[in-house]
Amino acid sequence: MFRLLFDNPEKAAELYYALSDDKCSPDEILIITITTTISGELKNDLAFVVRGKIMIVGEHMSSPYANMPVRLLIYIGLLYEKWIKMKGDEKFLYGSKLYKIPKPAFVVFYNGVEPRPEKEVLCLSKAFEDMTDTDLGFLELKVPVYNINKGKSEELFEKSPNLKQYVEFVAKLREFTKLYDDYAQAVKEAVSHCIANGVLAEFLGEQGGKIVSLLSTYDPEVAKRVYAEELLEDRNIEITKNLLALKMPKEQISQVTGLSIKEISDIELGLL
């Protein structure tokens, strides 16, 4: 839904103003969002170029996002490839003259139920296995994460009415989810309520059927279960590392954690 809402120049320009305090017109925005990566699994939520000079790469998350800098690293390479091909400039990459590209800028919007700060910054370097200082080149990617739950990031909402109304829709959907056992019904009721009360009324009036179809495929219980499994996996990995440090046999570690001998060996080798 976030992608559908902001995947047009007018709303993207509004969002850019909220983030940068720099006003631009819709005709200065070029949407270049990618739908799939090479793996065909990860999807980019929003990407657009402002005046041909700044490339905004935005993501929306409703769950933990520790690996977002790594995902953004993948996206930015694909986006630059797309940008160069769109301009038909592939040959210039092999020339001696400096080829200019839009400056990359990243942002993540979070509206999950787990409490998070109003704003925090994630760094790609946190994911590096080795941070030894050398004379070799170094890559860093920093991304601000804005908590856009209701009552947070009010300065953004003041400059982007569409973002504010999106947040109001999400809050209303959560409210109806508690009232209806059927999640699909909760989605329909939230859409109808927001249209009747002027919350993203035009957008939902045009895209309401698609929104209901998209959101109805989401299963909150499955999402909770997957998150719980991830937490358990992280916990077992940390326990395994501690037990390996204590020289406990792998067979006993397997009994304690439920991990296989291969998984324990991979943790020992730093592969997990």
Number of domains: 3
Q: How many helices in DSSP terms?
A: 10
What does the average pLDDT come to?
86
Provide the succession of SSEs: HHEEEHEEEHHHHHHH
Q: N- to C-terminal separation?
A: 34 Å
Backbone CA Rg: 22 Å
Notes on the structure:
Helices cover 49% and strands 13% of the residues. The chain has ten helices and six strands; from the N terminus they run ααβββαβββααααααα. The model has no long low-confidence stretch (mean pLDDT 86). α5 (161-179) crosses α6 and α6 (183-196) packs antiparallel against α7 (201-216). The protein is flat and about 65 Å long. Strands 1-2-3-4-6-5 form a six-stranded mixed beta sheet, sandwiched between helices. The chain has three domains: 2-159, no CATH class; 162-215, no CATH class; 222-268, no CATH class. With 272 residues, it is of the alpha/beta class.
